[in-house]
Amino acid sequence: MIRAHVPASPSCPARLAEFAADVHEGLCAPRKMLSPKYFYDAVGSALFDAICLLPEYGVLRADDRVLRRAGPEIAARLGPATLVAELGSGSGTKTRSLLAALSGRGGLTYRPIDLSAAALQRCRREVARVPGVRIAEVEADFLPGLAVAGRERHEGERLLVLFLGGTLGNFERPAAVGFLRELRAALLPGDALLLGTDLVKEPDRLLLAYDDPAGVTAAFNLNLLARINRELGGDFHLPAFAHEARWDDGARRIEMHLRAREPQRVRVPAAGVVAAFERGETIWTETSCKYEEDELVALARAAGFRSEARWTDGEWPFAESLWIAD
Ligand code: AVJ
């Protein structure tokens, strides 16, 4: 077997230790699982950008359309003097039009927060073209990153947090409320959250979006195992796992799994793991909850916000909600 000895994008030592600990916990659990936040190394971030180009995956285009349409109204409602922080900016393509609308009346500071240094580099290039925007990247997880970004706030300035693309869906519903409460605790009354959520739609459309015929999503999912091999010295044999997307109607969520095609044993030395797989056993790698529009107001209230406005896309049902911290 040919093995690359150089990681595609090496994590810093502290990050690597956390990755190792999470891989240990996830692969030793009775139901094996890995966190979707580890999808986004340099390769995974590029594969996600490719997913967003797929005709079957309407999420990003819907987000982008709604933001273009609502941008001027969002800017008018929020007024000038805004510090903008984005959780999980990725390459920032969908954010550009909104930043342009917001910076119309004077300069603004934009703090994209992402775990992927590669994505942040691309984000800087994308946003550099928007006049009046000063960009200062934060390479961190969401809430620690938000704490860093919030420290930059000037007297009387309002903080606008962007959480776009439907990423909230990665939390199970109860965990989503918990996360939004923690986010609220990092804000001051009057601060704003612009939240993108993918909406419930026909299961067939969703299944195609998460299991596209060209296999890009399969590659995105399998890259998580490749990353474990690269960064933690694992010996996952990728062809022995199959990508799988399922729709859970009761929980209104897509699940992504990696299914072992045959019984096998996998070693991940840097995580101190030897994991045995039965045939057909899966690693649960992602949850993507889909929301009903009428859940969103209650969600705002439960998290300590009031729901100020909402815009939706009809072509690919998707909602953009503007919430104000109480
Ligand atoms: C970036 C979390 C919004 O759940 O749709 C895309 C990630 N996973 N295809 C999503 C993803 C598979 C995406 N989010």
Give the SSE order as H and E letters: HHHEHEHEEHEHEHHEEEEEHEE
In this entry the ligands are: N,N,N-trimethyl-histidine
Tell me the span between the first and last alpha carbons. Answer: 58 Å
Low-confidence stretches: 1-8
Per the principal axes of the C-alpha atoms, what is the gross shape? globular
Number of E strands: 13
Share of residues in strands: 25-35%
Number of helical regions: 10
How would you classify the helix and strand content by structural class?
alpha/beta
Largest sheet: 8 strands, mixed
Helix percent band:
25-40%
Q: What's the Cα radius of gyration?
A: 20 Å
Q: Which whole number gives the mean pLDDT?
A: 94
Describe the protein.
With 326 residues, the chain is an alpha/beta fold. 36% of the residues lie in helices and 25% in strands. The protein has 10 helices and 13 strands. Strands 1, 2, 3, 4, 5, 6, 12 and 13 form an 8-stranded mixed sheet that branches. A 3-stranded antiparallel sheet has the order 7-8-11, covered by helices on one side. A two-stranded antiparallel sheet has the order 9-10. α3 runs parallel beside α4 (96-102). The longest helix has 20 residues, at 59-78. The termini are far apart. The relative contact order is 0.17. The chain binds N,N,N-trimethyl-histidine. N,N,N-trimethyl-histidine is lined by residues 51, 59, 165-167, 169-170, 210, 217, 286, 288. The site of N,N,N-trimethyl-histidine has 11 residues, from β11.
